[in-house]
Amino acid sequence: MAEFTAAVYQNEYLPDGGTDVNAIVTVTCTGAGVAGKTGSGSAGEIIIVDTSGSMGTETMAAARKAAKAAVNEILDGTMFAIIAGSDRAALAYPRVTSGPGLVAMDSGTRAEALRSIDQFVASGGTAMSTWLDLAVTLFGSVPQVRQKHAILLTDGENREDAGKLDAAIRRATGVFQCDCRGAGTDWVVEEVRRIATALLGTVDIIPSAEQMQTQFQQIMQKAMSRGVADAQLRVWTPQGAQVLFVRQVAPTVEDLTSRRTEVNPLTGGYPTGAWSDESRDYHVAVRVAAKAIGQEQLAARVQLALGDDVVCQGLVKATWSNDSGQTTRIDPQVAHYTGQTELASMIQEGLAAKAQGDEATATTKLGRAVQLAAETGNEEATSKLRKVVDVENEAEGTVRLKRAVDKVDEMALDTASTKTTRIKK
Amino acid sequence: MTQTPGQDPAHPPASPGAPAAGRACPHCGAALDPAARFCEGCGQAVTAGAAAPGSSAAAQAAIASTATGPTVAGEASPGDDLGHSPISAPTHLTPVAPAPPAGRRPCTACGGQVGPDLYCEQCGTKAPTERDHFREEPAGWVAGVCDRGIAHHRNEDAMALAATPVPGERAVLVVLDGVSSSIDSDVASLAGARAAREVLRQRLPQGMGTPESRAAAVAKAFGDTVVAANEAVVAATAPDSPNPASATFVAAVLEGRRLAFANVGDSRAYWLPDPGQPGEPVQLTVDDSGAQAQIEAGVPREQAETSTHAHAITKWLGRDSPDLTPRVGELELSGSGWVLVCSDGLWNYASEPTAIAEVVVREQEAGATDPAALALALVRFANDCGGRDNITATLARVDAPVA
C-alpha cells in the first residue's frame, strides 16, 4: 500500500504588517507498487505514433522499433491501444469499430500489436487534435480503466487551424496523462509542451533515431511503475486569504495555480496525475491578513488526497515577529526554487526572443539564465546553455549569443528548461 | 477522561482521598506514573505538575462536604491535593497547563471547528494551549475564563474557582495576575490561585457573635489565604531567580447573601446588580496601585488610570513582597446580579462599575446569559478592544432571594 509523507520548508516569521507566506512542501510516495495492480482499477496505455508523410524512411523505421519497445514494456493485463496519427487518427490496434477500444495485454494481443506496427505507412499531414480526440474516445470506451496514460511521438509541426489543438487539449485534460516526444528538429517545442503540460506529462527531444527505442522503453517502464492511479494536491487557506500561486517545482516546474478546482470554499484541488515511488516539491505562496506581533496563524494546509482520503498533510505557518534576524532570513529551499523557476522562464523567454530576432532581449535573458543556473547548481541547464551562448562572466550573467547554433541544442535547452535540481536538505 | 476542575458535579468520586492515583496525561488521557516526566501513551512531555482529574474531583467532594457540615479529619484536606500540582513541585520555566476538556473547544477567534492539527479549520488561528486559555465551570452558576489576550506572548493570569451545585449557596472566585516582568510568573500565579482556593474551601469563620469579631475573623481567614497563595508563588520561584515571580491577588467568597472579598494589587471584584434591582454597580476592591494613590490624592479616575505609572502596583505576592496584608471587605447582597472577579486585562477597557455593568448587560442581551457564556463574552470584549494584557473574567450568578 502506497504511503505518502509531506515535509514543509519555510521561514514562518513575518515582519510587522507582513502578509505573504512562502513554503516548499515536499510530498514523497513510497510503496506505490505497479500500475493497475493496487486495487484502484486497471491501467490503460495508448501509444500514439506520428505516421504523417514527413516521417522519413529512417525515422519511420525507428518509430516502429520504438513503438514495439514500448509495447514490450506494457505489463500483462494492462489495457492498451495503438493510434497511427496523420491528418486524421487511425486505430492501428486493436482493429475494432465498436465496443471497447482497448484490449488486455497478453502474449496473443502483444504479437498482434507488434504485427500491426509493422504496417505503419508514412503519408498525409499532421492534425494532432484528431489524435488526442481519438485517445479520449478510446479511454471513454473502457470505464473500468482508472489509470490512463499515453505516449505521443511526433516529428513535425501541427498543421491545423489555430485553436483546434487547444480545444482538443482541453477535451483531453483530466482524461489521460500524456508524455510527449519530438523526433528530429522539425517539431515545435512550445506546441508539444502545451500538450504535455496540460496532460501532466513530460516533453523531450529525441535528436537521433537510434535513441528512440531506449526513450520509449524508459517512458513505458516509468508509466508501469506508477501504482497510484491519481491524486490531488489540496491547499487549504484560511478565510479571507489569497492563494498567490501553487507551483510544482521539482522534478519540473509546472504552474498549477490556474488548475484549481474547488474542494470546498477554503480548499482548492490541483491535479497531480499518477504517482510512482518519488518525491515532488511544491512551492505554495499565500497572502494572509497581517496579525499582531507574536500571533501565530496557519497560512495553509497542503495535503495530498487519493479520492476523498487525505493521505498526508504539511502545515504552512505564519508568525509575526519584530526580530529582524528572524524575519529577513529566506528559507534556502524557497530561495532555490524561486531561482529555478526564474531560470525556466528566462530560458524560454530568451529562446523565444532569439527566434524572433530580438538579440538584445535574448542576450539579457539567457545571460540571467546562465547566472541562475550557476547560482542554483543546475549543471544540466549550465551545460545546455553553453551550447547556445558563449559565457563571458558566469557570476554576472554576461554572455554573447553563439553565431552558429545547432537547432538540436536549442530545442534540447528549451525542452529541459523546466527540469529542476534539488538542494540538500 | 480529562475535565476542568469540578466540571462534573453530577458524578462525585467514590473516594476523594487519593488524588495522585488519578494522575493522567493532559495530552492523551493515559494513566501516568506519579514520577513520570513523559507519557507512556503518547510520548509527550508531562510536567510533574500536570493537573490530575482525580484531584479536581476530590476538590469537588471537599467543598461539597464543607457545604453540608464541617470537614472531618481524614478527609481530603487542602494539603493532600498538592502532591503533583505546581504548588509543591515548582516547575521552573515550564508552564503548567490545566487539564484540557474532553474534545476540542471551538476556535477562540472565530468559533470555527479546530482541526486535529490544533489550528482552526476556518480562520487558521492556532488553538491556544491550556495555559494560554482555560475555562472553569465548577457549577452551572459559577464560571470563569482565563486568556492570554493578544499582545502578550504567554498567559500569566490565573484563576481558581469552586462552587457548590446549589445555586447561590457557596462560591469561591480567585484571580491572580502574574507580573510579566518577573520570571515564571505564569507558573507562580496558577500555583498561588489554586493554593488560595484550597484555603477558601473552608467556610468563612463567624467570629464570636459580634460584627466586629466576625470581620476580624474573616480578615484573618483572607490573611491566611494570602499567606498560602504567597507560599505557593515563592515555591514556584527559582531560589536564585534574579527577578522573582510576583502576582496580584483577588478573591471573593459568596456564602448565601453574604459576599466577602480581599485583594492585594490591582485585580478587582465588582458587584453588578441586574438593571432594576436594588443598589448600583460597585467596585468592591480598592487597588494597590499608582493610579489608586493618585485617585486618593484627587486626580480624576480616567486620568489617573491612563497615567504612566497607573499600572505600577504598590503591593503584590512573591518573594520580594513588601506587604502581604490584603484589603478585606464584606457586602450583604439584596437583589439579583453578578459577582465579577477579574484582572486588569478586562477592567482596563471598562473601569467604572457602570461601564463594566453596561458591557455585562449588553453581552447578556446579545445572548450570553449563563455564566460560562458571559465570561467568554467579556474576554472577547477585551480582546476586541485590543487584548493588550492577559484577561481573566470570573463570574458567580446571584438570583434574587426567594420571598
TrEMBL record, chain A:
Gene3D superfamilies: 1.20.120.1690, 2.60.40.3670, von Willebrand factor, type A domain
Coiled coil start-end: none
PROSITE patterns on file: VWFA
Name of one Pfam family that matches: VWA_3_C
InterPro entries listed in its UniProt record: VWA_3_C, VWF_A, vWFA_dom_sf
Domain VWFA span(s) in chain numbering: 44-223
Superkingdom to which the source organism belongs: Bacteria
Protein name from the UniProt record: VWA domain-containing protein
Source organism (scientific name): Nocardioides nanhaiensis
From TrEMBL, chain B:
Segments passing through the bilayer: none
Location of the PPM-type phosphatase domain: 142-398
Family annotation (PROSITE patterns): PPM_2
Residue span of region Disordered: 1-23, 70-104
Species of origin: Nocardioides nanhaiensis
Protein name per the record: PPM-type phosphatase domain-containing protein
CDD domains, A to Z: PP2Cc
SMART domains noted in UniProt: PP2C_SIG, PP2Cc
Gene3D superfamilies registered for this protein in UniProt: PPM-type phosphatase domain
